[in-house]
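Action item from last meeting closed. Structure (244 res):
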């Protein structure tokens, strides 16, 4: 496969377990996908493991969202592979995506003894999110790929003309892209985007070698296609927003 954008989707129902769990941050939080801030915490900073178990399925990718360690090993039925998480400086969170072709009943991550990166003294994972479908676009977008990462806030305006801001959460990534040219013979991959409901989860990976540039997100607007030639078309902006 090349370096074009990759998407993973169709999240199986899963159950989180771990070697140890803090009473306020149980392993079951690992698979509460839409509330990743309800994370899991270990009780130690020595060798630990966590996993997401699910009914037998063809797993094509997994995102480890918002972690506080670097060195780890990811294990599926195809074997164990050493991995290193990466900090996404856009949102200030450390993540990892692993692209797989495997049939397994669990995805496990083993964390070696190390100093947690956020200073809390124990290991933490926001979510372990497996996906059973994967798509890499045949060509990368020719429209500018634009993205932002800003924290939501509420503004209180005063009669004096002044104002105050209240932060409502962490930085959230939003991205959009389109295609000036896309062969009509490959239009089906565009409708794959559209078939994922706005309430449907997906993982987006820029696929440029930085495993931290992956986003657990949803489509925010419909996909619009315009025919601009006999055998090619134009795809207007596809907008995604991170769930966190």
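Sequence:
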């Amino acid at each position: 496969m090349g370096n074009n954008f990759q998407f993973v989707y169709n999240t199986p129902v899963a159950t989180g377990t771990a070697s140890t769990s803090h009473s306020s941050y149980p392993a079951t939080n690992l698979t509460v996908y839409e509330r990743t801030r309800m994370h899991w915490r270990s009780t130690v900073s020595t060798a630990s493991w966590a996993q997401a178990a699910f009914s037998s399925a063809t797993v094509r990718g997994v995102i480890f969202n918002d972690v506080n360690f670097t060195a780890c090993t990811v294990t599926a039925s195809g074997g164990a592979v050493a991995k290193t998480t990466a900090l996404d400086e856009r949102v200030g969170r450390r993540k990892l995506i692993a692209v797989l072709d495997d049939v397994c009943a669990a995805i496990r991550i083993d964390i070696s003894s190390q100093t947690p990166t956020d200073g809390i003294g124990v290991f933490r994972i926001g979510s372990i999110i497996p996906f059973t479908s994967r798509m890499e676009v045949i060509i990368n977008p020719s429209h500018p790929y634009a993205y932002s990462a800003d924290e939501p806030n509420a503004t209180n305006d005063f009669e004096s003309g002044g104002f105050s801001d209240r932060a409502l959460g962490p930085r959230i990534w939003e991205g959009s892209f389109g295609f000036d040219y896309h062969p009509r013979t490959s239009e089906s991959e565009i409708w794959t985007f559209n078939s994922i409901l706005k309430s449907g989860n997906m993982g987006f990976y820029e696929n440029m070698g930085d495993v931290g540039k992956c986003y657990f997100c949803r489509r925010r607007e419909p996909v619009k296609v315009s025919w601009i030639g006999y055998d090619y078309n134009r795809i207007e902006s596809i907008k995604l927003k991170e769930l966190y």
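Note appended to the action item: The two ends are 29 Å apart (CA to CA).
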